[in-house]
Amino acid sequence: MYAKLQNIKVQPLPHFSSGDIHTDILRLDLLHPVVSGNKWFKLKYYLSEALAGNYHTLASFGGAYSNHIVATAFAAREAGLTSIGYIRGEKTTPLSPTLRNAMEYGMKLEYVSREAFRHTESIMAATADSGIYWVREGGFGTLGAKGAADILSVTDTSSYSHIICAVGTGTMLAGLVQAALPHQQLVGISVLKNHFGLEQEVGSLLPQKEGQASFTIEQDFHFGGYAKHPQELIRFMQDLWAQEQLPTDIVYTSKLLYAVKQLLALPYFAAGSRLLLIHSGGLQGNASLPAGTLPFS
Ligand SMILES: *Cc1c(COP(=O)(O)O)cnc(C)c1O
């Protein structure tokens, strides 16, 4: 098992705390330098199903900077499976650092036009090989949520009133909702612009049962859209490092931290709240920035 769960720690964030509110962050990014954070948790049960079913290959979909693609490549290699990544768009030279890593982990890359990428079922149908285990883009699905639920067992999280995470497909949020205690409130920060079907998509991953923790999704912190990272966000990441020694990524976790800072100022959280933020990793994506942009790597 490559992921070192014992590396994960809870870091207090003094600049996100006051007399009334205490804030910690769960550092899943410390699992592994490249395959960090929630992607390993989300892949766990897909991987065990693939192994139990004697599949030889793990295949999935993603963009040129996808945390999910590189995690799939690594996880497959660790499990003794081969892997194929269907990549959105044309091949670029030089290759993105993400795809270079994925290839180093043995992944075969297939480039798919943006148009064809929208119809992943056709790609799956055209690749008629019963030995391939398919994982949806971003690890979306109930098994992905089941894996993400295990995030809250890494340490004792029962004393927190709020658990807050970045949201892409919503799979991680769905897992956290299932694992949280009924008194805990989940808050998801969407990194996609105008992704208003998200509540429903998260709901589709949840079992219908009473007594589940409730969740809300905040839509105003995408900074212009997926992976958009204006100068204001980069400056925020630099300040965050200076104040808290907390590294964040440009796609997910910086927007999570920025959102929490804004919400604290509203104020959004009642006095006495104890917040647990999830650092879901993704730092490998920062390699797409010009060298020296960030004071950490
Ligand atoms: C994929 C990812 C997310 C979003 O997870 P979803 O389950 O798709 O909502 C959040 N943070 C990081 C670093 C990720 O790579």
Give the key terms.
297 residues; six-stranded mixed beta sheet; 33% helix; binds pyridoxal-5'-phosphate
Word description of this protein:
By secondary structure, the chain is of the alpha/beta class. Helix content is 33%, strand content 18%. The protein contains ten helices and ten strands. Helix 8 links the parallel strand 8 and strand 9. Helix 1 crosses helix 2, helix 2 packs parallel to helix 3 and helix 6 crosses helix 7. The radius of gyration is 19 Å and the shape is globular. It binds pyridoxal-5'-phosphate. The site of pyridoxal-5'-phosphate (PLP) has 20 residues, from helix 1, helix 2, strand 7 and helix 7.
Summarize the structure in short:
With 297 residues, the chain is of the alpha/beta class.
**Main sheet properties:** 6 strands, mixed
End-to-end distance, in Å? 24 Å
In terms of per-residue confidence, which ranges show pLDDT below 50 for 5 or more consecutive residues? none
Strand order of the largest sheet: 1-2-10-7-8-9
Identify the overall geometry: globular
Fold topology:
Elements: E1 10-12, E2 22-27, H1 38-52, E3 57-62, H2 67-79, E4 82-88, H3 97-104, E5 107-112, H4 114-117, H5 120-126, E6 132-134, H6 142-149, E7 162-167, H7 171-179, E8 185-190, H8 198-204, E9 214-218, H9 231-244, H10 253-265, E10 274-279
Parallel strand pairs: 2-10, 3-4, 3-6, 4-5, 7-8, 7-10, 8-9
Antiparallel strand pairs: 1-2
Helix pairs in contact: 1-2, 1-6, 2-3, 6-7
Pyridoxal-5'-phosphate binds at residues 37-39, 67-68, 138, 166-173, 249, 252-253, 280-282.
